[in-house]
Amino acid sequence: MTFTVIPAIDLRSGNVVRLRQGDYAQQTSYRVDPLTLAHDYAAAGATWLHVVDLDGARAGNLANLRTIEALAAGRLAVQAGGGVRSEDDVERLLDAGVSRVVVGSIAIRDPDRVIEWIARHGAERICVALDTRNEAGRWRLPSAGWTENEHATLDDLAPRYAAAGAMHLLCTDISRDGMLAGPNVDLYRHVRALAPSLALQASGGVRDLADIRAVRDAGCAGVVLGRSLLEGHLTLADALAC
């Protein structure tokens, strides 16, 4: 199985930012143009780019669609999400040149609908995002930019999507996101046991090459890197070589 290192760009009002544990009040802004950053990632050897529309994730619309379209016109294959609430949103992103649409909130709230989208558009074009927070020993799945609690759990939905023919699963331990505290390797081993057929992308907490090796060795198909690249804790070239 090929292991893919995927640099990430989180967008808010068209700017590159990072949040701590998904908290919109704890934002770090970076003085770099998203298109320039994507160009640099491509020059370093990346093949994929992960883009999150943070405005859209909270408001339920494609607030940064123009920027996403410009990123998708570059050299990198783009997987993008945040604010996808309908099939029209899926089609707008695909029409904008996005290679893979990431669906999160709607994947938690209405899995039947997302399973229909997977069947209609193809499993390669849809990535299910089950970002999770451990509460009293259960992996809960908050939605709407991680601001609203839902009843479904990771243990409920990961096997369901696998059985329905999904191919890609992105999973973030929200408590690790933007914290540079290391990835939750035990969580990824748990997901692999729940749904071994899914190509699992790890996200949240990665700070160095040892962390990348750890999620790879846990059976993940890829890793999403955000703050660690933006702040120089590791270089993309080293991560790709790893």
From TrEMBL:
GO BP annotations listed: L-histidine biosynthetic process; L-tryptophan biosynthetic process
Catalytic residues (positions): D10 (proton acceptor), D131 (proton donor)
Pathway(s) of this molecule: Amino-acid biosynthesis; L-histidine biosynthesis; L-histidine from 5-phospho-alpha-D-ribose 1-diphosphate: step 4/9
This protein's GO CC annotations: cytoplasm
Location in the cell: Cytoplasm
One example GO MF annotation: 1-(5-phosphoribosyl)-5-[(5-phosphoribosylamino)methylideneamino]imidazole-4-carboxamide isomerase activity
Gene3D superfamilies: Aldolase class I
EC id: 5.3.1.16
Catalyses which reaction(s): 1-(5-phospho-beta-D-ribosyl)-5-[(5-phospho-beta-D-ribosylamino)methylideneamino]imidazole-4-carboxamide = 5-[(5-phospho-1-deoxy-D-ribulos-1-ylimino)methylamino]-1-(5-phospho-beta-D-ribosyl)imidazole-4-carboxamide
Keyword annotations of the record: Amino-acid biosynthesis, Cytoplasm, Histidine biosynthesis, Isomerase
HAMAP family: HisA
Family statement drawn from the similarity comment of this UniProt entry: Belongs to the HisA/HisF family.
Protein name per UniProt: 1-(5-phosphoribosyl)-5-[(5-phosphoribosylamino)methylideneamino] imidazole-4-carboxamide isomerase
Organism: Tahibacter soli
